[in-house]
Specification:
There is one protein chain. 35% of the residues lie in helices and 24% in strands. It has 251 residues and is an alpha/beta fold. The termini are far apart. It has a domain of 173 residues: Rossmann fold, CATH 3.40.50.150.
Amino acid sequence: MKDEELREAVREKYAKAALKAGTGCCGGETSCDDPVTANLYEASETRGLPQEAVEASLGCGNPTALAELRPGETVLDLGSGGGIDVLLSARRVGPTGRAYGLDMTDEMLALARANQAKSGLANVEFLKGTIEAIPLPDASVDVIISNCVINLSADKDKVMREAFRVLRPGGRFAVSDVIVRGPVPEEIRRSMELWIGCVAGALQESEYRAKLEAAGFENITIQATRTYDADHPAAKGKFASAFIRASKPAP
């Protein structure tokens, strides 16, 4: 699949999910017991957020809970969807901080902005663009988060370079994403990725680390948070959600 075809496939999938938010318990094409998206957020976290933001969440983790956000920081969410992680981040950084959401899908941006208006949070801005070309200046954010989106990119090296560019020295990369742990037969990999929703293909754990290092990151850690079981023995324990941390070197 060519890059633009892949981008359109991702855009179409998430446009449909945005339009379905608010029509059922989980929205999109997921179900409430989906093994990838279920039970990612505590009730105390989502209390007071618009239901549409919760239902439009199609992530595989909860990066805001693990990113150690501090009051006054500027946060960028790559592939922000309906905005749940941006709104949670905005609460954590407080009125002296700022939370940006970046998404390429008009329907998701419209939903996210509506959710922001309902939330009453003023320290939030949603931007249109791709994660391979972030529309922010160099060294302008303290923390980058993302929730099961980088795996959808056809050019993950460019994503890592852009993330490094917009982070301030000492800034933190703290994302949830799907990884592959060890070799998997190609036909099994394709069927698993369809099930998990990773149209572009998840990276091997070692590949993820290598791409972050090549972009200039240091202090890289990859921690599996949820392993996805499969009927086929070749895929057992090989696909997982992970929390991936790294930092941009300080001066």
